Amino acid sequence: MTVDQHQAHASSFGSVAAEYDRARPSYPGELFDAIEELTGRPLKGADVLDVGAGTGIATRLLHGRGARVIAVEPSPGMAAQLHRVTPEIPLIKGDGNDLPCHDATADLVSYFQAFHWTDPHRSVPEALRVLRPGGALALVWNLKDRSVPWLGEQEARLAAALPNFHYYGDMNVITGELDAHLADVRTRELRWERRIAVEDVITDLRSKSYFAVLDEAVKAPVLAAERAALLADFPDGQVVEEYRVELTLGIKPL
């Protein structure tokens, strides 16, 4: 993907914010247990910056665990959806490459499904700047388990139909920048699943950047073909999506 294409994809989410909020997957409670275990401190009472917060899917879960969380989001459309759903959560405009925050003010800087939109050479030092000593940078991805036959087949269909199709791939490539700045990097992998309707799967796909950047005339037949393929696999209209959650967490030295 070229720099211009990357920027176009990164900027596309505002137009699909409602679909994103409605159909994107949540996160299992065990993930937040793991964050507390690996950091050695509870989320309750912690000062958290959730960067690239999107519509607040993870932000709301952090808030629910008692964290004093501030959402950081560059897209006006995504931020508007977050504020509409949870106006009680503080929200500031910004991105991880240039955080609009004072030094040493956060216990945790989190990226849920968002770190790959940053420049790690800039975003990692920025996170370390705003973290207090002993604070943590947490990078999280929800990844569909492509080893499950139907999910692997779906990926192959989309890759064949869409020249701009992409998926997260090997997160170690993206998270490797942590090793250059931090001696203490900890990881955890979790598995979970959700049951959703076929139409929700289609809505989820519409919220992906590789669909959001396309004209409706281009994406409509691809989505129609995908709906038909899903209904062939799941004739009752209910789909079980299997996920693995990858957590990479770097601890700032005391």
Features:
254 residues, alpha/beta, Rossmann fold, seven-stranded mixed sheet, globular
Biggest sheet architecture: 7 strands, mixed
The CATH architecture is 3-Layer(aba) Sandwich
Class by SSE composition: alpha/beta
Rg: 18 Å
> How many DSSP-defined strands?
7
Which ranges are low-confidence, i.e. pLDDT below 50, for 5 or more consecutive residues? Answer: none
Count of domain modules: 1
CATH superfamily: Vaccinia Virus protein VP39
Shape category:
globular
What name does CATH use for the topology? Rossmann fold
Structure description:
It is a single chain. By secondary structure, the protein is an alpha/beta fold. The protein has a single domain (3-144, 168-194, 242-251), classed as Vaccinia Virus protein VP39 (Rossmann fold, 3-Layer(aba) Sandwich), CATH 3.40.50.150. 43% of the residues lie in helices and 24% in strands. The chain is built from twelve helices and seven strands. A seven-stranded mixed β-sheet has the order 3-2-1-4-5-7-6. Helix 4 links the parallel strand 1 and strand 2 (68-72). Helix 7 (149-161) packs antiparallel against helix 12. It is globular, with a radius of gyration of 18 Å. The N and C termini lie far apart (38 Å). The relative contact order is 0.17. The model has no long low-confidence stretch (mean pLDDT 91).
